[in-house]
Input
Amino acid sequence: MGLWDVIAGRSRPKAPQLDALFLVPSAAVTLETTLALRPTGTASVCYRAATGQAFRAVQADVVELLNADPDEPDVEVSQDEYGFTWLVVHGDPDDPAGLCTDLHAVNTSLEDHGFGSGLLCSLIPFEGTDGRRVGLVYLYKRGTFYAFAPKPGEKQRDNLTEIHLRDTLTGELPMEQDLGRWLAVWGAPGL
Output
C-alpha cells in the first residue's frame, strides 16, 4: 500500500488464506472427541456464478476434475433460493482431508482463472449422534471460519451451540470474532 492509498483512506482487501482449509481435519478430531460431531462426508463451495463462456468452461473443468475418480460420487452443482451456486463434493466421512483438498481445488481453480471475486464461502457439515447438523463455514474474503447451527425444521439458529463451537475451535482454526459476519446459510447443501 502506497502513501497515496493511506492518505485517500484506501486499503487492500485481505488475501484469502485457503490453506486454512487444511486445518479442518484436525478440528474434526476435536469436534468428534469433545462434542460427538462427525463429518457428514459432504462439503461445498458457494459462489456467485459469472456469466459467459469462460466461467462455464472453468466450472466444467472443475467438475470434470473432481469427477475423474469413478469410485467417488459425482459432484453436484445447484442453485439456492437466493441465486447463489453451490458446488457440492461427496467423499468418505472418515476422510475430511480429502474433502478439504477438493474444496481447496475448487476455490483455487476459480481464483486462478479470475473469478475469485465471486467466491463467498466453503461449508463443511458435521452431524451429532442425535442427528443435529452444524456447519463450519469458511469465509473466503476474510480467511476465517464460523459455526452455523440451524435448529431443525425452522429458520432459527442455535446461537449457544455456535458460540460453543467457536470457543472449542479457537485454538485450531482462525475463527471469525465479528459475530456480524456470521451469516446464515439457509438451505445450504448438507445442512
